Amino acid sequence: MELKMPLMVVFLLLLFITTVIADYLRPLPRKDLEFHWKPRHSSHPQQVHISLAGEKHMRITWITEDESSPSMVEYGTVPGVYTSVSKGETTSYSYMFYNSGKIHHTVIGPLKDNTTYFYRCGGQDLEFNLKTPPSQFPVTFAVAGDLGQTGWTASTLDHIHQCNYDMHLLPGDLSYADYQQHRWDTFGQLVQPLASTRPWMVTQGNHEKESIPLLKAGFESYNSRWKMPFKESGSTSNLYYSFEVAGVHVVMLGSYADYDEYSDQYEWLKVDLSKVDRKRTPWLLALFHVPWYNTNKAHQGEGEGMMSAMEPLLYAAGVDIIFAGHVHAYERTKRVNKGKSDHCGPVHVTIGDGGNREGLAHKYIHPTPEWSLFREASFGHGELKIVNSSHAFWSWHRNDDDEPVQSDQVWITSLASSGCLMDKIHESRKILLAP
């Protein structure tokens, strides 16, 4: 008892610091969703979600309460007919007074492109289906960060469900569990209808950290539940990785992993970008949580350290679009670099408006900087349809409107087709290939 009391005091203090202290006032939060417990067999697969796991492979993740349940996925292209089987690995974790279920990660493949597969987990009768991404253009990404578990979240997910997309990109802040581990479970239940059918590629935000000084390192829950293809991309950390799909190279970076020029993440990024073949993947995207170009008063300047270290790398590599979250609003910039418009820089999109319980960030800096094109404090999601090697159509959809209503839209031309990359050859070699 003497040991437990100080631990509880530390825990409550951390909760206060992470949820109360802020440098701006938020509007009243949207009501959290209620999740009613339903009796299930202990081996029943729960919280099923999928992600890419290297070329032509997919990782199936699910949780069971039964420790003896096998980490096995049976799959095929016809409902109820499973012509292939894969076995995987398991993990679990404890957090204060919480013990997770058995977390299964099983990689299936090789899989055909743009094909629907039917699968079941752990030998159970419940059947799921997934659709693999295409190998050629067009390819469509749904984009929404800072989701949480509110009525607004449910609206966002409903809008995304109406979108004919191939993959979901999420730039951090998933469950908003904030140390309450059961909320990781309810988040998994909430997103399963979508996340079990299309790959969800995510990176971490501040709400995933959940560290307790001297007791718990950060990101244990996140890393245990949302395993991304970091090993497949040569990374040593689940907090940053890359993948390729249908002519697009996507870099997922960690705003809360070390990023200075002596860090493992920085060195990995240099190597990863130096290997990108723009003839094979003419589009280059990057995602991370804390925005670098932000005209909202919320979280103003928080991305400056990472920007100072990594913007030269991304600029030299010719990144086309950068997505970030953290700020609970939407904003799109011109192509920009070093704090001003640059026709060879990336377009920055802040899209931390998925529906979290903290509400929207309404206050903006005035006058508006010349590089900011569109900004609005509304919940919503984005859709990026890359039509071919040179053109993509970006649209943002407010939750207040029907999904077909495009609140912001723009055609974007790739840097690979603009001549900018030819201008960058010397600079990129100097920066990306430097020892």
TrEMBL record:
InterPro entries to which the protein is assigned, alphabetical: Calcineurin-like_PHP, Metallo-depent_PP-like, MPP_PAP, PAPs-like, PAPs_C, PAPs_N, Purple_acid_Pase-like_N
Residues covered by the Calcineurin-like phosphoesterase domain: 140-330
Top-level taxonomic group: Eukaryota
UniProt GO MF annotations: acid phosphatase activity; metal ion binding
Domain Purple acid phosphatase N-terminal residue range list: 45-125
Family that this chain belongs to: Belongs to the metallophosphoesterase superfamily. Purple acid phosphatase family.
Record protein name field: Purple acid phosphatase
